[in-house]
Amino acid sequence: MRRSVILWIGLAIASVALSAAAAFETRATKLQAIKSVGIVSAIGEEMSLTRAGLTGLGNTAQSLSISAWGLDELIVQQATKLLSGRFRVQPVNYRRAAFAAVRDSAVTPVNLLRSDPFKELVRSDVAPQGLDAYIVITRARSKLGNGRNVEGVGLAQYRTLLADYGLIHALYEVRVIEGKSFDVIEKRAAAPLENTGTLRLAGPSGPIDETFEGPAASERLRAAIADLITRSLPVTLGDMHLIDGQ
């Protein structure tokens, strides 16, 4: 009986490994066939201000417009520069608000069995159609301590009885959507950078300090968020094998 169980487990592991290898080969084949891409970015129109913790602070969240910062334009510019060595990147038009309105991340495990909400948006809201693939960059989500979810661009504060922690964050995920079938070829959330502080998020973030106070705080904050994006984007695209040499 024990030998049968061990044999069954071994066969199951082998089957999973073969399935994973086949899926990787399929993704690699589809990526190799891509010549032209369009880039859609919808993460940077608003910034969240989140407070959470154990001190009766009140788990509240607010948001404010940062459309003047031009973060989505920066992302498209940076992604175009990174991807142009391998693909023909063509400008596309899209309704940014429609992509930003999708709040439930399809990258998270609970949503893996659901239809990806961005497939139909690419089909209906992006022009021109007919490119080999579309690179879609949207907000991602992470837990703040053991409390609230935070997503996209923002400031997060978490208080305990003994300490007060603050972070800036730029949480995003990238999808490669095939331009004919609109299947999702690959998707990945941007990973943390070198953040080694006590409070961590599952994506690009950094600590808040006194430099974010005073009359020039808004510009310094914009620059810090832009830095998180520009440092993490090549890593994310490299992890997805979208950049030559990665």
TrEMBL record:
Question: Is the keyword Signal in the record?
Answer: yes
State whether keyword Signal applies: yes
* Protein name according to UniProt: Uncharacterized protein
**Position of the signal peptide:** 1-22
Swiss-Prot/TrEMBL keywords: Signal
Q: What species was this sequence derived from?
A: Bradyrhizobium huanghuaihaiense
